[in-house]
Amino acid sequence: MSVKRKKGIAPYLVLVGLVSMALVWLFPMYIAFINSFKPEQEFIQNGVLAFPQDWDFSKFSKFWGEVNFSKKLLNSVQVSLFVALIGVVLSFLTAYAIGIGRVKGRIWILGFFMVAFTIPQEALIYPLYSVSKMLNLYDNIWSIIIIFGVMSTGFGTYLLSSVMSTFPDELLEAARVDGASPWRILRSIVLPLLRPTLFVLATMFFIFTWNEFLIPLVMLPSNDNQTVTLAMAVTTGQYTSDPTARAAAALIGFMPSVIFFLIFQRTLMRGITLGAVK
Amino acid sequence: MSTKFEQTRQYYWFAVPGVLTFATLVGGSFAYNIFLSFNEWQGIGKPEWVGLANYERLIQDRVFWISFLHAFEFILAMSIIPTALGLIIAALIYDFISKYFGNAISTFLRISLYVPQIIALPVVGILWAWMLSPNVGVINTILRNIGLDKFALNWLGQSSTAMFALSIMMIWIQIGYTIVIFISGMSRLDPYLDEAAQLDGAKWFERFRIITIPQLYPEISVVLLTTTVAALKVFGPVYVMTNGGPGDATQVPAYFSYFHFFSTLKVGYGASIATVLAMILTVLAIGLLRFQRKMGVLR
To answer: Which positions in chain A touch B131 (Cβ < 8 Å)?
Structure first.
């Protein structure tokens, strides 16, 4: 039985308060939006808050062409996709040994992977930089694919092991009694049942990698290898004299993430909460 | 018994690729970083062994201490305030909005407040440059429009306000994460307790304080741990907004070590800063986990 109450005024106050807060939170995006369509002359005359009177679409194509944004988009998609793939495969295999195989010393293995969570990237970056130079992988997007693919197994192994350790024992025992090998159990039982979770993890890796910034900044100096996120940091400096062009750049920069987020919103939220509390 | 052991042993093979690559890449790099911290090196030629010299200099470096002070200040803006606000907002959304106004509005609220989390930091940097810019920025334009000209400051350009301005930005970024975790935590709670208290006439805030919060301890502790670690590691926001300046007003350890790696080319010195930061983070994370386990929060 649920408690029936009159609505009263309190819920409306809460509604007004929270909706205003949400609008404040969206406000920086709104500012970027209106100013990216505002002709520069209008910006100088009417200021930052004014709604554009003439809509100027030229800045997008100008920015897109000047920084060769298609190339950057392609780089980012390539990096994020491969990292998601490598990260999920490596995490899945390791977590399988820990969560299903219950191998001895699994706590230590897990603890070892958790180190990735506390060590800052700054404590890895110089070695990665100098070794990749030695291996001729410097300024090559495969270097960051390998680095992020491996680094993401820290979080991935942690998350998947805790999911797998709740796997129904009877199912596994039955398979073992029937003489199924670990490899067979992985393919026929665990993988099919875990597919949705793996997809959640891949989505998270994709977005995390898309937004990564320090390591690409150090590893990918040349223009053609930049990711979207890196291009946002490096090239927008050239546009300081033209603030409306910067707004257009920001809009182009966050559109892919926002679109991806809106499509995979539910998946991502599930992953974030899955990671927080096992 | 022996078959069981045989079986377990077969499973080790599955961990080999993950453990090996991780040990090589992360473990190896960190070990190399520690080695570099005992050397003087400009990035070319041979590193020169100097023992503890880098660490001795570190202790006497005023900027090093300041940078850690700022990192701890970021705990307030990235961890404590977002956790407190996130709890209240999550409870308001869960108790009022979902109940009386339906899912559409509560989804809208969650997404709007979460969006800053998915935008890459360099883009966040551009957006907030628009907000904070001294002459044409949004905040100062609004302040001038309502006649508060004397509060229209050069937010990032002067030492006295730079940390404050960055902190506001960090709260804007972080709050979505805490809200999402807490709302999902609330959906696992038993509504019976809350309803019983409601029948007894307990006000919303009382129920929030006495019933909701204690049941959310697992979520709260995870959020505090992850955001505290993130605060001490903070790099991107400082890089895109202030480069540690003006002066050293927003200097943090991660940026400080990056600066020595790639600007002053004192690689050994940068490595020693990064090593100290890594040690502090590891000790802190282990300490917090132990504390939580002792409190019975985590199983």
So the answer is: 28, 31
Per CB-CB distance under 8 Å, the chain B contacts of A109 are 15, 19
For B57, other C-beta atoms within 10 Å of its C-beta total 15
Closest alpha carbon within chain A to B37: A123
A254/B119 Cβ within 8 A:
yes
Contact status, residue B54 vs residue B271, Cβ threshold 8 Å: yes
Contact of A231 with A72, CB cutoff 8 Å: yes
At the top level of CATH, the class of A70-276 is: mainly alpha
pLDDT one-digit tens code per residue, A120-167: 999 999 999 999 999 999 999 999 999 999 999 999 998 899 888 888
**A211: contact with B, CB 8 A cutoff:** yes
Q: Is B40 helix (H, G, I), strand (E, B) or coil?
A: strand
Tens digit of pLDDT for each residue in A89-128? 999 999 999 989 888 888 889 888 887 778 999 999 999 9
Domain ranges of chain A: 70-276
Whole-model pTM over 0.95: no
Q: In order of start, what are the domains of chain B with their CATH numbers?
A: 57-294 (1.10.3720.10)
ipTM score of complex: 0.89
Cis bond leading into B253, ω under 30°?
Answer: no
- Which residue, among B120, B119, B96, has the nearest Cα to B106 in the 3D structure? B96
B127 with A207: Cβ contact below 8 A? no
